[in-house]
Amino acid sequence: MSTPSSPSSLFSLDALFDNPLFAGGIGLASLGAAAAFARKGAIAALGAARRRLLVNVEISKQDPAYPWILAWLSQPRETPGFIASRLTRIHNLSVTTTTSSRGPNVNGPTNAHFFLQPGYGRHIVKFGSAYIAVNREKHSTANMNTGEPHEVVQMTTLWSHRHAFEAIFGEAHRLAAKANEGKTVVYSARGMEWAPLGDPRKKRPLGSVILDEGVKDNIVGDVKDFLSRQKWYVDRGIPYRRGYLLFGPPGSGKSSFIQALAGELDFAVATINLSEMGMTDDKLAYLLTKMPKRSLLLLEDADAAFVNRRQRDSDGYSGASVTFSGLLNALDGVAAGEERISFLTTNHIDRLDPALIRPGRVDMMLRIGEATRFQAAQMWDRFYGDVDQEGSARERFLQRLDELGLFGKDKDGNPSNRHTSTAAIQGLFLFNKNDTQGAIDMAEGLIPRKFEAEDTVPDGAIKTPA
Ligand SMILES: Nc1ncnc2c1ncn2[C@@H]1O[C@H](COP(=O)(O)OP(=O)(O)OP(=O)(O)O)[C@@H](O)[C@H]1O
Ligand SMILES: [Mg+2]
Fold first, then answer.
1. Could you report the per-residue pLDDT of 217-227, keeping only the tens digit for each?
2. Is 201-367 a domain of CATH 1.10.10.10?
3. What residue ranges carry the coiled-coil annotation (predicted)?
């Protein structure tokens, strides 16, 4: 008797598996699944191994070490061995060009320096016995202040070679320090950050700035004394800050002196022009809390803040430049940085407010004034010391300036209000290089020129007398 076939027999698995097509398909599918599974496993294992076996260091463009590392990477290095030298070749380079016109031939072409650095992408470098994979990447996000895209350099090496990084960072820093040896770095505010202003300049020797007798020793002695007393301040809980105000007419050497002082102390200069448009109280306060290390703060045109006495409007807006109270708060408000040496300069001491002259804001005020007899003599010696060894021409020059009443007395000894600046004397000497008589003959040009009232001068270009 026949039995009704059970439903299972309708879709009999046996029958299915007996079907060679189906069995083959299943076989293939399970093989594929196993392979995918193995691949996933392998990737996970590789990831885990990578995490365990490799170390990764990321340096972002914001970090001060970023340019040092790029410079270190572009160092030429000997890589012995055929494979190693092929492996570590850098095929992607980017170039940074600086031009200078300081060639021996004035009319000649400008000098250009090309600085090659590893470009974006992956590279391999060898350091000692360690191979290091380097990946320089540009991100799609950008710095809101400067508009520059974010950038990182990643360096990866074996865990067992992780100590190479310390050595690399040390070497990169030494390299950067060596490049700046004998130079003064000048920082200026770019947006909300400090950025080097041009290339580091050659240090200006302190001896090349000629101030009146004793003035230079006075400031230099005070700054050096302050620098040696950090512990004294810290022990007594006093903020380690000192401020100087240099005032006087234009071209008396204030800025030059601060630059030379920075060189002497091996400091950088961080400069802000207070009359600059867009410099606000908040920005100033923020920048002062983020000063580059080992730098002198230079606030030029401090009188700009004396003029702008306007307090904040009710809507919190304080105008596009720094207010007086903003300056005071930045210098010693609660948010002020703990360690700082600041120099303020102004041409208009009469606009000064006594509130500024307080320990912690300005501890020392110095007038750097018009050229004195002492300064004129010293400047002469610096320029003509080799051609006027016995100093006879110098005496004639000084006598001439006396006759012209340029040292504050006329030739009869009565006070005169005629003065000249050290910058003008420098200009005269530069015009008469090696020509002492020429300098004496042209000394009359040192008399400060007063510009005529507008209606007496015809329109058009004004020719400056030679
Ligand atoms: N006392 C000085 N000794 C040597 N050089 C000087 C002196 N004074 C001025 N100079 C020269 O004159 C130029 C202008 O000087 P500097 O910029 O330092 O003047 P300043 O006092 O800062 O003027 P300002 O008040 O206009 O800013 C520089 O080239 C500098 O070398
Ligand atoms: Mg100046």
1. 999 999 999 99
2. no
3. none
